[in-house]
Design goal:
Layout: H1 2-9, E1 22-23, E2 26-27, H2 60-80, H3 82-93, H4 101-116, H5 121-150, H6 152-157, H7 159-190, H8 198-209, H9 212-215, H10 218-247, H11 257-291, H12 297-308, H13 313-337, H14 350-355
Antiparallel strand pairs: 1-2
Length: 360
């Protein structure tokens, strides 16, 4: 499978040899297909420096390391934000008691102590590590496959749709991997006395409701996570493109790795704010659904009403904005560490420029 994907990757418009960044109305010299990609010179001394990658874009090793980057970025960030996530979930399922972020933290500390803020860390770490593996790894796979189905010109013209389709496809599988741990996490965090650890919660859930207990929230998860991930990837990709085009004062190839990672973080935070808004109603439904037995998503949605599904939005914006920015920063840092190909934002293919009369 990986060999066929790698073959397709070499022809796709996101492959580095096809992407020469345009800045200040000048185009870098054409690079023949298959030729090693060279960095644009930052100075006379650096002119001969060549970027050495550890693997080829679209290879099996590339996808595996991208999946590893997803595990690290999602598993660590979600676990670090467990206290905020706990308060947010409690605000959603019991808004009369938990009326705000600070009030929620105060009540949790008073009733459960400092250790209470860490409730649900184990299912969070396991679940979101598995989700990150599928989310980022499969996104790279689907982006390669869909871009080759569209062809070079259409992949550029419809690149936003390509990002949306690739991320939605990846998240479909990622949520199946996440659902069991998400269900256990919500039970631990929102049902006092039910269970304090994953080892207590999982057998109890299976004994009471069977396997269905772990997957009854998968449909609401799709409702929450697929729009979230589509926004996360598409908004990020286009924001990076816009930052390098309108904000960063020099071409990406002339930016240091640190400067590129700063752009990644800023674009990630912007994407995260939009992610939080589009996915929050479904997130509220998931939190309530996993707490209650026998309820359906439609029943929960009807009971919460329009105002109820937006409870805890401010906490979620802070959480998701920070989380998304850190995830992209960590993911890109993993790519830098393992020397993976990181193609610049896409440029209009020469063939399309000729069709549009943009070249002489």
């Amino acid at each position: 499978m990986y060999s066929s994907v790698a073959h397709l990757a070499r022809a796709n418009p996101f492959h580095a040899p096809h992407l020469q960044l345009v800045q200040y109305g000048r185009r870098s010299p054409a690079v023949p297909p298959g030729a090693p990609r060279r960095l644009r010179p930052r100075s006379l001394a650096a002119a001969a420096v060549e970027e050495q990658y550890s693997c080829e874009y679209g290879s099996g090793r590339f996808f595996v390391l991208c999946g590893l980057g997803g595990i690290i970025s999602c598993g660590t960030t979600h676990t670090a934000l467990v206290p905020l996530d706990l308060v947010k979930c409690r605000m959603q399922v019991d808004p009369q008691k938990y009326r705000g972020i600070f009030n929620g933290f105060s009540i949790t500390l008073r009733e459960d102590g400092l250790r209470g803020l860490a409730k649900g860390w184990a299912p969070t770490f396991i679940g979101y590590s598995m989700q990150g593996l599928c989310k980022f790894g499969f996104y790279e796979v689907f982006k390669v496959l869909y871009s080759n189905i569209l062809g070079e010109e259409n992949a550029y013209v419809w690149r936003t749709s390509l990002y949306l389709a690739a991320s939605a496809s990846a998240e479909f599988f990622a949520d199946i991997a996440l659902a069991p741990m998400e269900a256990a996490k919500v039970r631990i965090q929102t049902q006092p006395g039910y269970a304090n650890t994953l080892r207590e919660a999982a057998p109890k859930m299976f004994q009471e409701e069977g396997l269905f207990a772990f997957y009854k929230g998968v449909a609401p998860l799709w409702m929450r996570q697929i729009p979230y991930t589509m926004m996360k990837f598409a908004c990020f990709e286009r924001t990076v493109e816009a930052l390098y085009k309108y904000v960063v004062p020099k071409p990406r190839s002339e930016c240091s790795k640190g400067e590129q990672l700063v752009v990644t973080f800023v674009a990630g935070y912007i994407a995260g704010v939009f992610c939080a808004i589009v996915s929050h109603p479904a997130d509220s439904v998931v939190s309530v659904l996993n707490k209650e037995k026998g309820s359906s998503a439609s029943q929960v949605l009807q009971r919460l009403g329009f105002k109820g599904v937006w409870k805890g939005l401010f906490a979620r914006i802070i959480m998701i904005g920070t989380l998304t920015a850190l995830q992209w920063f960590i993911y890109d840092s993993v790519k830098v560490y393992f020397r993976l190909p990181r193609p610049p934002p896409p440029e209009m293919p020469e063939s399309l420029k000729k069709k549009l009369g943009l070249t002489q």
